[in-house]
What does this fold into?
Amino acid sequence: MNEIIAPIWRKFAFLSWLIILTTSNIYAQSSWNSVKSGSAGDLVAVYFTSVERGFAAGDNGFLSQTTNGGKSWTKQSIGTTEDINEIYFRNEDNGYVVAGKKMFATGDGGRNWRELKIYEPKDFRNAAPEFLSVRFADKKRGFVVGSLLNKDGEVVDSLVMRTDNGGETWARIIVPSKLELFHLDFVSSSRGWIVGDKGLILTTQDGGVNWFAQNSRTDKTLYNVDFRDSDEGYAVGGKGVILRTENGGGNWETVKTSFPNTFLRVDFADDKNGWIVGYGGTILRSGDKGRTWLKQESGVKENLYGLFMLKKFGWAVGAKGALIQYQK
It folds into this structure.
């Protein structure tokens, strides 16, 4: 009997050791590490145009650039003290920053920035604009979304601005909602989505000329939306809400998890692998097109507001200058 048990035990021990070793390698190769950002204020946005060149931004007009893959960061001045809400590049040279009621553009990869005049004060009567997100559907057609605020800082209307000439001139587009709009995404020159307060999802199929509401089946605020193509998309928001669709938002399903924290960003590096960041340093990862999510150790407790992911590396930013790097 002992002669039979011994080989079985040795085989079981070997398999257990192999599982532990494999699991250890997976976690060792998929770690998040803190990097000094040079900012004491909150960082809200992060964007990389290549493996080497990237940008992080946030409170009081803070903008920092790296040209060596994040080994070091250099502060830039773009001429504003308003909080920067988003960075977006439509290619390596042409990028945009939205900061409060201002917008800035670069044509040389972020070395120099200029302010764009996209509205007149009289355009919004007694309200002030707040720009939260910017995207371009193609070379000429771009959009900025946010809200209009009264003198007490209360949201009184939604705001969508559109350009058809690469950002030189802008005009307001009226959409079927007065709720605050937080983020938008385009997958082609015609298909786009906007998410906002109280579960609002708007979509366009004609390049942003007309927008229609989709049924999100939630009343939670949606802060971020990410579409892989015209069919597969994801949205995240308050109190742990995660939504996914496989038909362009015709039907949105809620993905159930045991994570109740508010989620602020979702970003898929490819068709299968995606990440979510949010309050309390929370980072979730999915490897099955967003059907299930597992928690990763971020190494920080601060709220994470910004996220940029590629397949083998990524970055997240957050409160109190938090800047962390993912390396597979």
Observations:
- The mean pLDDT is 91.
- Residues 35-327 form a domain with the Methylamine Dehydrogenase; Chain H fold (CATH 2.130.10.10).
